[in-house]
Amino acid sequence: MTTTTRIHSAGEAGFVEFRASPGHRRPVAKRGSVEVVVIGHTGQVGSALVQRLTRIGGQRGLPELKFSEGINRSRHIFADGREVRELPRASGSLGELASRLGSRRRPAVIVDCTADPDLPRLYPDWLRAGIGVVTPNKHGLAGDEKLYRAIREAAQRSGAPLAYSATVGAGSPILSTLRRMRQAGAAPSGITAVLSGTLSHVFSAMTDGASLSEAVADARSRGFTEPNPLEDLSGRDVARKLRIMLREAGLDEIGIHREPVVPDAPARSASDEPAVKALLESLDEAWRRRLAQARSRQTVMVYLARFGQSGATVAPVCVAPDSPFARLAGSGNRACIEWPDDPDCPMDIFGPGAGTNVTAGAVLADLVEAASGLAR
Amino acid sequence: MTTTTRIHSAGEAGFVEFRASPGHRRPVAKRGSVEVVVIGHTGQVGSALVQRLTRIGGQRGLPELKFSEGINRSRHIFADGREVRELPRASGSLGELASRLGSRRRPAVIVDCTADPDLPRLYPDWLRAGIGVVTPNKHGLAGDEKLYRAIREAAQRSGAPLAYSATVGAGSPILSTLRRMRQAGAAPSGITAVLSGTLSHVFSAMTDGASLSEAVADARSRGFTEPNPLEDLSGRDVARKLRIMLREAGLDEIGIHREPVVPDAPARSASDEPAVKALLESLDEAWRRRLAQARSRQTVMVYLARFGQSGATVAPVCVAPDSPFARLAGSGNRACIEWPDDPDCPMDIFGPGAGTNVTAGAVLADLVEAASGLAR
């Protein structure tokens, strides 16, 4: 079955088009065009990205981005200009991307907009075929050593661009700063960061007197948590982000000690919603005591990612109430990075840590950079 | 006269070498090498850069940086490996760089480590010859519209890299963020920034009760000011940084209103040190009153660069004492950037705004990126 649809590119509220100056309006030859394949094109970030792609247009000196395919769990669409053919997704459609796109002349970038833990296993094939990879998916870059090395290796050998600024801090310039400094021969001497808006919200609510189970229920009702909130409370997502930061800084071999909010063993056994609720309630009293203890010391508790002389940890930590890490606004992420060059003046980067628009913006910025590298 | 010297590359205190992981130590072919010509190689930033260049070594997947020439006001050195020939600088040595370097096969980058207001007039020639340009010198990028367009145009047409992250915030990721977002089609809706460590120091001292002339004398004795402190007090340097930020954001045509700490007309007439001192003292009383007024309103005064709906200004402004812009540590710079995508959660970037090591580090990071672009 084939259907034809039209992609709408109506102006999205809250997004200002680039206001080009007169000089930028002069017609000049664009540097080629780049095909963009979006996996997860119907998800939140994926659909926001596709909307922007159809609207952005080639800018002066930058290649044109052509959204050519979208693939989700069940459908595969092929776009040609604004006409779109939609087909059921064939089995093997992801596996054959490397050879199909790689054999064409036009440069291409695959954007993985999923949170699929297995899809990154295909990145090395794509990269080896000279296809760029852009993604907000943390599982490859934070994945096991072997996969991570294979991804890096493939990108380095083929020269195909690989970009993932949206994996940490939703595109705040945290990773780019670590990478630039590594390339210039410098490694950070310390990192302190709040990397989970969800955990900030939970700890902030507990500081205000809510129990753990109430705080989690509140975060969940606002759409801040994963479908299973124990995933957020495990600290694994924060550990992944710290892992990506450390790797970007060239510190590949640092072990990360993780202290979950809810212990791993009972979390694994809590298989349904009532079990999760019961587990959280069983921990309310212990967390009430920890928060009271923090308060008695004139501190507040936050969930921090840290790296320093004594190693790397993600854990609940007491900080002074006027610390920049206490009670961050909204889902904000903050990373404070110390450099041996100027230990008295650490770099401090704060930005929205999540959000569909912000993440899609970061992915698009990565995509433009990747495409520029390919179309050169 | 020709002398032969040896460049020392003894470990500089306070700088940690990149700790490569085992994977990074495997010998792989480097992607070519790039010649580096440093203008102002004996100045503070220039000599720190040359020291690092001799030490950094080619990193995996990155081109090797070969320091080949250094030029200052009187000398011209030619480096071949670690042997260096030093000659008196010939007239026209800068003018002939474009043709001499451009005619060779090896890719080259010129680093302008001066603060010379005229040297940037040569950037378009260099760029047109395919030579990369890296600089912490603000005068070209903040310069008059015609020169700025010529520089941009030359870089765009030739594809030669042009990098200047050290011009604003000493390499804090302020400019890279604005550029990335512009390329992705987004313009900031607001900017608030402290961009002068010198003015922060002066206003902080005045808040603590010093008079203007005392505050300036103190900043000067610590080496924080230009030889003529009226240059800092004019706000021109802050205006240049804001100009570079706005241009990077694609907002080329915004006028900047500048309110100096010392009015321009008497500042122009103060030709020697006693005249500068007398001028500052004549303004002590007026500034004492402004500071007292700020205090009576429970505010402190800082020198801010701002952009928003009502335009762009650099001026002394009253802020709340707990504002992130009040009393920044050391020479720290802070830029707060609002995006229409997430107006409630502006991005906030803080970092050391000055310092020889930090600036040289930013120039080196730019240089590595520029060289990667050339050696591709």
Automatic annotation (TrEMBL), chains A, B:
Q: What is its EC number?
A: 1.1.1.3
Q: Which GO terms describe its biological process?
A: homoserine biosynthetic process; methionine biosynthetic process; threonine biosynthetic process
The catalytic activity, as recorded, is: L-homoserine + NADP(+) = L-aspartate 4-semialdehyde + NADPH + H(+); L-homoserine + NAD(+) = L-aspartate 4-semialdehyde + NADH + H(+)
Q: Which family does it belong to?
A: Belongs to the homoserine dehydrogenase family.
Q: Which cofactor does it need?
A: a metal cation
**Any transmembrane segments, and where?**
none
KW Transit peptide (keyword) present: no
- Signal peptide: which range, if any? none
- Pathway annotation: Amino-acid biosynthesis; L-threonine biosynthesis; L-threonine from L-aspartate: step 3/5; Amino-acid biosynthesis; L-methionine biosynthesis via de novo pathway; L-homoserine from L-aspartate: step 3/3
| Domain Aspartate/homoserine dehydrogenase NAD-binding: residue ranges | 43-164
Superkingdom as given in the UniProt entry: Bacteria
Q: Which PANTHER family match?
A: HOMOSERINE DEHYDROGENASE, PTHR43070
Q: What is this protein called?
A: homoserine dehydrogenase
Gene3D superfamilies per record: Dihydrodipicolinate Reductase, domain 2, NAD(P)-binding Rossmann-like Domain
InterPro entries referenced in this protein's UniProt entry, alphabetically: Asp/hSer_DH_NAD-bd, Bifunc_Aspkin/hSer_DH, HDH_cat, HDH_CS, NAD(P)-bd_dom_sf
* GO molecular-function terms, A-Z: homoserine dehydrogenase activity; NADP binding
Family matches, as PROSITE patterns: HOMOSER_DHGENASE (PS01042)
Q: Which UniProt keywords apply?
A: Amino-acid biosynthesis, Methionine biosynthesis, NADP, Oxidoreductase, Threonine biosynthesis
List, for all copies, the residue spans of the domain called Homoserine dehydrogenase catalytic.
Answer: 173-368
